[in-house]
Amino acid sequence: MTSANAPYVARDLAHVWHPCTQMKDHEHVPMIPIRRGQGAWLEDYAGQRYLDAISSWWVNLFGHANPRINAAVRAQLESLEQVILAGFTHEPVIALSEALTAVAPPGLTRCFYADNGSSAVEIAVKMSFHYWRNAGRTQKRRFITLANSYHGETLGALAVGNVELYKQIYKPLLMDVITVPSPDCFERAGGESCADHSRRKFAAMEAALAAHAHEACAVIVEPLVQCAGGMRMYDPVYLTLLRAACDRHQVHLIADEIAVGFGRTGTLFACEQAGIRPDFLCLSKGLTGGYLPLSTVMTTDEVYAAFYDEYAKLSAFLHSHSFTGNPLGCAAALASLAIFREDRTLEANRALAAHMGARARELEDHAHVAEVRQRGMIVAIELVRNKATREPYPWQERRGLTIYRHALTRGVLLRPIGNVVYFMPPYVITPAEIDLMAEVAREGIELATCA
Ligand code: PMP
Question: What's the pLDDT band for 451 if we cut at 50, 70, 90?
Answer without folding.
Answer: confident
